């Protein structure tokens, strides 16, 4: 009898020690073995409103355990069975079952969380449609397993510490319409196929991409295209004109882009912002830019452009800022000088010597000793109907041969 009572006593002692681990989230200590025991994850002891939430509970808790910094105390709310009330998690009815409840969206923007990876977290949330994690300290590479997220249409991991190559998995995610990977440390090249994806937003700026601008760049259906602050080289592809009905904002600034500004740039009739400042572009400004009727911000500062600033460009009605400083322009007409007085046109550090704050005569002369050529056949063409006043004032600098888009 005594030999039977002893195991029972030891069993009761063990239950007394371990049972609190099932009922709370504290770390328990085995009295005979001082090694801490991690709190077990047993969803069946909790009351989830949907089985889909029960399945992802261990995934969220596992991710919580690898978070190394949480200065705002966000993860303190990631407790219990009401996942839809966790800070940053949002639930909805999944497309395949409108009576079910699942985590459809995650918004960690500005949470300042730190974790060595997202692998094993977002790729295991099958109903995820939106993932925003701007301004955290997440790192690692982006796993190809995110391609399994069939509903994901917004993916924002900007302003983190991700590295490695471009996340190729996004090329197979046809539901994706918003891709923002800016302000990270991605390297290598951007696959040309990304410009064929059905994206509305493509933000790749402030990484370490090094490559020639893809020839098919104009195939993108994106409204907002940002490649700034990388090391893109080569000319602006003529194919950019194919995006005439879609592109609204284009940022190429602070790269290594060379060559002449393509005539086809004037086809971007819906563009409000175009910024190619601080590159190595050369040649005159094509008069086709006078067709950018909706343009508000236009920046070509810090290049090697020269010649006359086209009057048709200065006559555009929506211009709020035209930056042409630090180039080698030699002439500015009446309309352009009006914009200078209004503070709209910045043309400092050029070679227009009857204006203030220009380059020295010696510096300008030295520049013009270098051979530079651009195709003159398209420089003076205006691929849209020029307004009557442009006909009268701009004929000397831009021939008014009209070519319909």
| Record field, number of beta strands | 24
Alpha carbon gyration radius: 30 Å
Q: Would you tell me the overall average pLDDT?
A: 88
Order of strands, main sheet, comes to 3-4-6-8-10-12-14-16-18-20-22-24
- Overall, the morphology is elongated
Helix content: 10-25%
Q: What is the CATH class of the largest domain?
A: Alpha Beta
CATH superfamily of the largest domain: Ribonuclease Inhibitor
Explain this structure.
- Pfam families: LRR_1.
- It is found in: Secreted.
- Keywords: Leucine-rich repeat, Repeat, Secreted, Signal.
- This protein has seven helices and 24 strands.
- Helices cover 17% and strands 22% of the residues.
- It is α/β, with parallel strands linked by helices and 405 residues long.
- The protein starts with a helix and ends in an 11-residue tail after the last helix.
- The chain has a twelve-stranded mixed β-sheet. It has a ten-stranded parallel β-sheet with strand order 5-7-9-11-13-15-17-19-21-23.
- The protein folds into two domains: 7-37, no CATH class; 50-376, Leucine-rich repeat, LRR (right-handed beta-alpha superhelix) (Alpha-Beta Horseshoe).
Secondary-structure topology with pairs:
Layout: H1 2-23, E1 28-30, E2 33-37, H2 51-66, E3 89-92, E4 102-107, E5 114-115, E6 130-132, E7 137-140, E8 154-156, E9 161-165, E10 178-180, E11 185-188, E12 201-203, E13 208-212, E14 224-226, E15 231-234, E16 249-251, E17 256-260, E18 273-275, E19 280-283, E20 297-299, E21 304-309, H3 311-314, E22 321-323, E23 328-332, H4 334-342, E24 345-346, H5 361-367, H6 376-379, H7 388-394
């Amino acid at each position: 009898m005594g030999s039977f009572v002893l195991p029972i006593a030891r069993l009761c002692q063990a239950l007394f020690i371990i049972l609190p681990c099932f009922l709370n989230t504290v770390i328990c200590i085995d009295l005979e073995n001082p090694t801490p025991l991690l709190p077990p994850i047993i969803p069946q002891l909790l009351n989830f409103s949907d089985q889909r939430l029960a399945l992802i509970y261990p995934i969220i808790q596992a991710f919580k355990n690898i978070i190394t910094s949480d200065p705002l105390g966000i993860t303190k709310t990631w407790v219990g069975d009401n996942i839809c009330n966790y800070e940053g998690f949002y639930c909805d009815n999944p497309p395949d079952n409108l009576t079910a409840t699942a985590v459809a969206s995650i918004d960690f923007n500005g949470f300042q969380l730190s974790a060595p990876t997202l692998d094993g977290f977002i790729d295991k949330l099958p109903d995820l449609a939106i993932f925003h994690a701007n301004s955290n300290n997440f790192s690692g590479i982006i796993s190809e397993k995110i391609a399994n997220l069939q509903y994901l249409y917004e993916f924002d991991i900007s302003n983190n510490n991700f590295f490695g190559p471009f996340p190729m998995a996004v090329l197979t995610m046809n539901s994706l319409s918003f891709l923002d990977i800016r302000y990270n440390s991605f390297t290598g090249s951007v696959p040309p196929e990304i410009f064929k994806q059905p994206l509305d937003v493509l933000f790749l700026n402030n990484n370490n991409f090094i490559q020639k601008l893809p020839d098919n760049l104009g195939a993108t259906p994106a409204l907002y295209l940002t490649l700034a602050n990388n090391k893109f080289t080569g000319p602006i592809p003529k194919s950019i004109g194919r995006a005439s009905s879609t592109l609204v904002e284009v940022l190429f600034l602070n790269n290594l882009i060379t060559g002449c500004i393509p005539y086809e740039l004037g086809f971007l009739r819906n563009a409000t912002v175009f910024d190619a400042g601080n590159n190595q572009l050369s040649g005159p400004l094509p008069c086709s830019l006078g067709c950018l009727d909706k343009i508000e911000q236009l920046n070509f500062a810090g290049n090697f452009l020269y010649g006359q600033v086209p009057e048709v460009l200065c006559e555009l009605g929506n211009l709020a800022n035209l930056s042409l400083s630090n180039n080698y322009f030699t002439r500015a007409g009446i309309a352009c000088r009006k914009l200078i007085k209004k503070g709209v046109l910045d043309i400092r550090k050029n070679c227009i010597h009857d204006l203030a704050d220009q380059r020295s005569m010696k510096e300008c002369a030295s520049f013009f000793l270098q051979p530079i050529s651009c195709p003159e056949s398209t420089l003076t063409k205006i691929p849209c109907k020029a307004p009557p006043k442009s006909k009268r004032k701009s004929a000397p600098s831009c021939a008014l041969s009209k070519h319909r888009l």
